[in-house]
Amino acid sequence: MKAPVRIGIVGLGRLGQRHARNLAWHVPGATLAAACSPVAAEREWAQANLPELALHSDYESMLKDTSLDAVWLVTPTSLHTDQIIAALRAGKHVFCEKPLSLDLAQCDRVIEESARFPHLQVMIGFVRRFDASYRDAFNKISQGAIGRPFMVRSQTVDKNDPDGFFVRFAPTSGGLFLDCSVHDIDLARWMLGNPRVTRVFASGTIAIHEGLAECGDIDNGVAICEFEGGRLAVFHASRTSAHGHDTQTEVVGTGGALSVGHNPRANRVEIFDATGIRNECTPTFFERFEHAFLNEAEAFVASLTGGPATGLTLDDAREATRIGIAMRQALTKGQAVNF
Amino acid sequence: MKAPVRIGIVGLGRLGQRHARNLAWHVPGATLAAACSPVAAEREWAQANLPELALHSDYESMLKDTSLDAVWLVTPTSLHTDQIIAALRAGKHVFCEKPLSLDLAQCDRVIEESARFPHLQVMIGFVRRFDASYRDAFNKISQGAIGRPFMVRSQTVDKNDPDGFFVRFAPTSGGLFLDCSVHDIDLARWMLGNPRVTRVFASGTIAIHEGLAECGDIDNGVAICEFEGGRLAVFHASRTSAHGHDTQTEVVGTGGALSVGHNPRANRVEIFDATGIRNECTPTFFERFEHAFLNEAEAFVASLTGGPATGLTLDDAREATRIGIAMRQALTKGQAVNF
Amino acid sequence: MKAPVRIGIVGLGRLGQRHARNLAWHVPGATLAAACSPVAAEREWAQANLPELALHSDYESMLKDTSLDAVWLVTPTSLHTDQIIAALRAGKHVFCEKPLSLDLAQCDRVIEESARFPHLQVMIGFVRRFDASYRDAFNKISQGAIGRPFMVRSQTVDKNDPDGFFVRFAPTSGGLFLDCSVHDIDLARWMLGNPRVTRVFASGTIAIHEGLAECGDIDNGVAICEFEGGRLAVFHASRTSAHGHDTQTEVVGTGGALSVGHNPRANRVEIFDATGIRNECTPTFFERFEHAFLNEAEAFVASLTGGPATGLTLDDAREATRIGIAMRQALTKGQAVNF
Amino acid sequence: MKAPVRIGIVGLGRLGQRHARNLAWHVPGATLAAACSPVAAEREWAQANLPELALHSDYESMLKDTSLDAVWLVTPTSLHTDQIIAALRAGKHVFCEKPLSLDLAQCDRVIEESARFPHLQVMIGFVRRFDASYRDAFNKISQGAIGRPFMVRSQTVDKNDPDGFFVRFAPTSGGLFLDCSVHDIDLARWMLGNPRVTRVFASGTIAIHEGLAECGDIDNGVAICEFEGGRLAVFHASRTSAHGHDTQTEVVGTGGALSVGHNPRANRVEIFDATGIRNECTPTFFERFEHAFLNEAEAFVASLTGGPATGLTLDDAREATRIGIAMRQALTKGQAVNF
């Protein structure tokens, strides 16, 4: 057995805790050796719930720990690019939650800096690529199951939060498309063979959360994306569903079609009662992608210890941001954006 | 075009009205020429809702109408055999709702009498044989889609009626198995190639309607039926479902399996709300077999005017009764009944 | 019982024959009294398969039959408007297959002429409004089941015809959107409460049938349609599916969502074999809307004999054409079309 | 954090390796400290694939390791009872794969011996109790979702192995019911509140594997089980399915019903092609219960370190064997077995 990869996690919010537990207990070949959070309560959580590890309140101090091989960033998007670059300069591999950045120039900075450290890996966490069902769909398509894939329809739909908590964060989220649809954009590019985008149109509405109007955001949006070679994608993003988290994707080819998540079932239970026959829905992306987060961590750690590359590049992350920005533009202008 | 078959319907209860409407408006080659009911309100309904036709309060009087080619019996089971025999003697073809009779000797009487009138047809309405989905399943099996079929699992489940209206009719219904499972018995025999039954075991319970205990009946029952050649059937009948009418049947073969009605969906609508993702259920057998009742009438009328035989024989009807009686016996004795 | 409505059908192609059979055998209150086709073989089919009726090779001659109350047009789109106007002037009610016309000015001519004959009804056959599942969805929405509906996603997907037979008719079809999506446009307007359209964008591709390029048509298209009040629709049309005819529609509201046809199942049969668990797909719109065509005829005939209005107006038909034309324009220009 | 539970695994066949990986990498609070197998290749697998641990070829020698807190038995059924008793006498907690034994007297020996060591836990691995969907169903039922549960229908269906490899092991497997249906028996008892069994009937057939006749076994079986209080269970077990591993269970109550695994879908992918719309099936119980095996290990380890009891008792395991034996008897005799 090889020496385990020593990892320091940064950010221990809800999603950070999920990553921390995975790295601590479930990833062969990984040791969660350090955790960093400016929030005292989060450090206390780490002490109480994780195996013994070094705790830092300051990112710079953690980077000085030369025993760490990699950092695992689950921090606000606005910090991503600076933190990635600092980690690279400190000689660490980097896992960073999506999106890379809301700003193309910032994406480019990371790409340039990363090129200077070819022995260090940087992966942005497009977690759906590690979901067993999406992986199965991708493999089937690669094997020709649907002929030539030419269209993707993909949606990210979140359960409505009546409190509209997220409205307060809307001004810094980049808007609905950059916050939610980047996943779908990345999936579409992956499934369609990474074609070059040529035109984007988008539309949207505020169905419930009027407060979004202030910052020009929407709670439901749709977009069409044209790629070279006559390939197409249609996206839908929503924050107002009644039934739960409903991520689904359809890939259409010349010889068939595949869908992932056509019914966003919570599990294998069906209920027969006076309302009919029903299944419950995955409540949030947490439950939907619970196992994918683990696969993602395993894949990244494996890639650092001689395993296969994960396939995800920084260019993929940049392209998702670029298309997301164009969708926001099209929405604002009411006109298609040509590339 | 041939002269239409002139039909007289007998019994205009809820199901009788359905048959009457079909014969009046929807069956090419048929003319609903007469209707018979001892109930004045039913005759009034006929006058108001059907095309012009002769009305009778008395069955004997209707049989005297020599212009009628056939009678259509939607009457209480206890009347079936006498009415069929009278119709045959009057020179009429007969359609009769299931079951033929609750008594084997009565079935035999009809079979004997029918043999004396080979030019007259008698069909018992096992309506499921005319349902498009069951028909499709049967055809696929005939074409070898599941290899050699060796097991059927079939259920008839009715929505609970909190008033327990049916409890009052339990004493004359023949019990749960003879009232409900005859359909499943007939389906199993049809799908398995009409094998000879060798042994039956049954069990049951009163889940809700305690009043059934008085006449030895149950509101939920299960049964196992062994046929020659290692073929098997498992039946379930219930009067207490919360979700609606749920008829389903699975046929298992050596090379695959087919199911009909795995989800008893009311239609093509799905509802996404706080309870999850659901479809409504067919409320009663009326909605489930609405089109099958029409197909059945079309098939019977076609068989009288040169079309193919319907495939249903009086022996099929007798066998369903025979097995149903054995299931009731097994339930009472707590032991298997051997044939 | 009232005197039946006497109807003359015009056009006895595949769909015309379906309508003729329905009117001849299945619609209470209707008598199919005449049929008109310039094709001798079609008139022979009528003689062999329908009850006795008057046969015409010429539309003008049929209109002279003063015993007819209504005409039933199942003719090429290019003939619709002239034939409707002639029928009105001859004092007949009109049923006409969709679309009313590919040309807005022609639509307006019919609307103007129709206004001169307020006692005569003209209905364009948007058959989906008479499908039991769409009707159920509409009723549920009207009763508030999903809160305020604000988005419709709807598709018309046809099985690929490897011969590309339809390519030859593409030049006169009006293109994919006017030929197929008019149904979805009409559904969206119906479900969303007939809002005014404000902007349209469309895109498309030729996935298989290169021959369409000649006349500027596509075999797969997508479109976004913005309506007043922040309402949205997304459409998809395709002629290249591998699995069959797949019409589906989702209506999203502030309190839930409804879908019709989420799985385009052919019937209630499921097959369990080495390929997994599957159901077959409705092969064509014929099987999918078999019962809806009958409901449509019953509803139109009922509306002529004192029953409720069908709810479909000529303005609905005009609007479907208007939006379909704008979608075609947007596709050609690569830019949104504003109204 | 408490000191981890030190575990020694016994048996490293396919299922043993799964358990070993879980204990080695995925169970918080556990350390896989030893492994025992008489097979050299299995010990080599352990050395190559697991973290450093002590390897034993002999069970007695492993029991002498006083640092071990528990043993984990994934060994042939015939060894279970002796190995459990030896472990208890060596002061170890025991996890043991199902079934406890094929012999009631052996079950009783373990129960008696276990009573002498009240501080030591023995759990038999009825893995389905730890599956997220079965757990959800149980919780819903406990909360009254279906009223009073009175009937369970449950099946264990395995994909046909054309080689009939398992036929060779049939003589020592205890037969289809003891090998497969014990899971369903345990589920039924769990869901119905552990009622006392009163009568059993069973039937079965050889659909494919004629070689089973020699030892009186079958490849498809059905059984009815009556419990006190009018509760019922119906079981089905098969080794011959074409579509894969299909475990499903339905619990019927007076106010509704729940099913687990109604469609044994492999994952969230659906395929639309010329065969229709389909999903693949879970190939074996391994994939179906992958996460349940992990949950089971976590639950058992948690119960040893102050967590809640798992709820599974040795009496549960004995009862599953007792009912399974009665089902085999009923099959042989062709008569119901009364308790």
State the helix count of chain A: 11
Largest interface, chains and sizes: A-C, 40 and 40 residues
> What is the CATH third-level topology name of the largest domain in chain A?
Dihydrodipicolinate Reductase, domain 2
| Helix percent band of chain A | 25-40%
Report the order of strands and helices of chain A. Answer: EHEHEHEHEHEHEHHEEEEEEEHHHE
What is the rounded Rg of chain A? 20 Å
Oligomeric status of the shown chains? homotetramer
So, the CATH homologous superfamily of the largest domain in chain A?
Answer: Dihydrodipicolinate Reductase, domain 2
Mean pLDDT of chain A: 96
Largest sheet report of chain A: 7 strands, mixed
Biggest sheet: strand arrangement of chain A: 12-11-7-10-9-8-15
Number of domains of chain A: 2
Q: Which structural class matches the secondary elements of chain A?
A: alpha/beta
Write the layout of secondary structure elements.
The structure is a homotetramer of 339-residue chains.
Chain A: E1 5-10, H1 14-26, E2 30-36, H2 40-49, E3 54-56, H3 59-63, E4 70-73, H4 77-89, E5 93-97, H5 104-115, E6 122-125, H6 132-142, E7 149-159, H7 170-173, H8 176-192, E8 197-205, E9 220-227, E10 231-241, E11 248-253, E12 256-260, E13 269-273, E14 276-279, H9 285-288, H10 290-304, H11 314-333, E15 337-338
Parallel strand pairs in A: 1-2, 1-4, 2-3, 4-5, 5-6, 7-10
Antiparallel strand pairs in A: 7-11, 8-9, 8-15, 9-10, 11-12, 13-14
Helix pairs in contact in A: 1-10, 4-5, 5-11, 8-11
